[in-house]
From TrEMBL:
<dbReference type="GO" id="GO:0006672">
    <property type="term" value="P:ceramide metabolic process"/>
</dbReference>
<feature type="domain" description="DAGKc">
    <location>
        <begin position="47"/>
        <end position="198"/>
    </location>
</feature>
<dbReference type="InterPro" id="IPR001206">
    <property type="entry name" value="Diacylglycerol_kinase_cat_dom"/>
</dbReference>
<dbReference type="InterPro" id="IPR016064">
    <property type="entry name" value="NAD/diacylglycerol_kinase_sf"/>
</dbReference>
<protein>
    <submittedName>
        <fullName>Ceramide kinase</fullName>
    </submittedName>
</protein>
<dbReference type="GO" id="GO:0001729">
    <property type="term" value="F:ceramide kinase activity"/>
</dbReference>
<dbReference type="Pfam" id="PF19280">
    <property type="entry name" value="CERK_C"/>
</dbReference>
<dbReference type="InterPro" id="IPR045363">
    <property type="entry name" value="CERK_C"/>
</dbReference>
<dbReference type="InterPro" id="IPR017438">
    <property type="entry name" value="ATP-NAD_kinase_N"/>
</dbReference>
<dbReference type="GO" id="GO:0016020">
    <property type="term" value="C:membrane"/>
</dbReference>
<dbReference type="InterPro" id="IPR050187">
    <property type="entry name" value="Lipid_Phosphate_FormReg"/>
</dbReference>
<dbReference type="Pfam" id="PF00781">
    <property type="entry name" value="DAGK_cat"/>
</dbReference>
<dbReference type="Pfam" id="PF25382">
    <property type="entry name" value="PH_CERK"/>
</dbReference>
<dbReference type="InterPro" id="IPR057465">
    <property type="entry name" value="CERK_PH"/>
</dbReference>
Length: 458
């Protein structure tokens, strides 16, 4: 008589594998007794999920979402006695719409997406919108206190970009992510809300990028037929164009949260900024943005006007295999802040040096044309309002025509409007207001572990 015990085995490069040990017993009764005691002990781990709602994007990445789930993830879930209701999405925003209006969330312990960062964004929006609607929160108000989501989110990487998974787990391996879900790990994460005037636009957990990264994404959307290679081609083209944009950035600095250049990495179980944030981020009266006038006492806001090649807000390091440190190596997952990176107008060579440092160990902020701030809130206003804003404000046709002519005329001088990209989606407006909501969601993850821990195994 024998029985098998399956366990998680950690290896190098933050990969997890499923191992097993077989025990032999002298009698059937002794075998059943051991199994009963082990199952009793396992039932004490209440963080482990028993039922999951799984969304699979069959079109993302190399169209391997269904294969990855069926071959690598589903067997592990069955082995762990976790039930899963699977929905294969049929269209864009299918998962978001289902979560928002149809899903019976009381039946589940978590929601899992099989896909890339775009699929995760759908799940994120669906859960947050559903939670705010259930609690009567007006998401169109930029100063609304959002209610944290009760369900955890799991990510099985199967997309063109898996930045969120890589940044929160340390690898883009489907088996590793599945095992994090099975053992019930929990990692809080900040979420940024993006508004234009009094209208909600989107939520963001990784990168808000204006200028260079917005232009790269906008150009890559025209080349979707190239697959993942479209990002490289669009990146080269955008770099050669070397546009800059003029505007005003206003931000509320985060106090007592360190700096983006302090080299204190966000690591599993040892990040003091994130560990203490639960106590520090109790409801507090917000210092509301009042434009450029600081004479009313809102002097805590900093205001910077200039010409920028890029403005980036990184709520996590945004690490990926090509950029192991990410855009902001010391950004934290759950400290209630985002790192605001301003890249001013500079030469082609200087900007290339800045981009190159994302791929090596040098400090990418150590340039005279780059400055970085850790902030709780920020507002961006372009030099000339975009046409959509002019139309919304009730201006006559002559004004709209003048605004259009101004945009065409200034485009040759590098001061036309750029575009914001929000976690891989282009925003419809340039003038935006961004607020950070601390620990609004929780992932089936534990943050990136130190390599020394990985080498010890378990």
């Amino acid at each position: 008589f024998f029985f098998a015990v399956f366990y998680v085995r950690r290896t190098r490069r933050r990969l997890w594998h499923c191992g097993d040990v077989t025990f032999h017993c002298t009698s059937q009764g002794l075998c059943e007794q051991w199994i009963h005691v082990i199952n009793e002990q396992l039932s004490l781990f209440t963080n482990r999920p028993k039922s999951l709602l799984v969304y699979i994007n069959p079109y993302g990445g190399r169209r391997r979402g269904e294969h990855v789930y069926q071959q690598k993830v589903a067997p592990l879930l069955r082995r762990a006695c976790i039930s899963a209701d699977v929905i294969v999405t049929k269209r864009a925003n299918h998962a978001r719409d289902h979560l928002t209006a149809e899903a019976d969330l009381d039946k589940y312990d978590g929601v899992v997406c099989v896909g890339g960062d775009g699929m995760f964004s759908e799940i994120l929006h669906g859960l947050i919108i559903r939670t705010q609607t259930d609690h009567g929160v007006d998401r169109d108000r930029a100063d609304s206190e959002l209610v944290p989501c009760s369900l955890r989110v799991g990510i099985i990487p199967a997309g063109s970009t898996d930045c969120i998974c890589f940044t929160t787990v340390g690898t883009s391996d489907a088996v590793t992510s599945a095992l994090h879900i099975i053992v019930g790990n929990s990692q809080p994460m900040d979420v940024c809300s993006v508004h234009h005037d009094n209208s909600f636009l989107r939520y963001s957990v990784s990168l808000l990028g204006y200028g260079f990264y917005g232009d790269v994404l906008g150009d890559s959307e025209k080349k979707r037929w190239l697959g993942p290679a479209r990002y490289d081609l669009a990146g080269v083209k955008t770099f050669l164009n070397h546009k800059h944009y003029e505007g005003t950035i206003s931000f509320l600095p985060a106090e007592n949260k360190g700096t983006p250049r302090d080299k204190l990495r966000c690591r599993s179980g040892s990040c003091r900024h994130c560990l203490h944030s639960s106590q520090e981020m109790k409801p507090h009266k917000k210092k509301k943005f009042r434009g450029l006038d600081t004479s009313d006492g809102s002097h805590n806001w900093s205001v910077i006007h200039g010409k920028f090649i890029a403005i980036n807000a990184a709520s996590m390091s945004c690490a990926c295999p090509r950029s192991p440190k990410g855009l902001s190596p010391s950004a934290h997952l759950a400290d209630g802040t985002t790192d605001l990176i301003l890249v001013r107008k500079c030469s082609h060579l200087d900007f290339f040096r800045h981009l190159l440092r994302h791929t090596n160990k040098n400090d990418q902020f150590d340039h005279s044309f780059v400055e970085v701030h850790r902030v709780r809130e920020f507002h961006f206003q372009p030099r000339v309002r975009d046409l959509a804003s002019a139309g919304d404000s009730g201006e006559d046709e002559t004004s709209c025509f003048a605004a259009t002519c101004t945009r065409r005329a200034t485009r040759h001088h590098g001061t036309s409007h750029g575009r914001w990209t929000c976690d891989g989606e282009i925003l419809p407006h340039t003038a935006i207001h961004v607020s950070v909501h601390g620990q609004l969601i929780r992932l089936f993850a534990r943050g990136i572990e130190e390599e020394e821990e990985q080498q010890l195994g378990s």
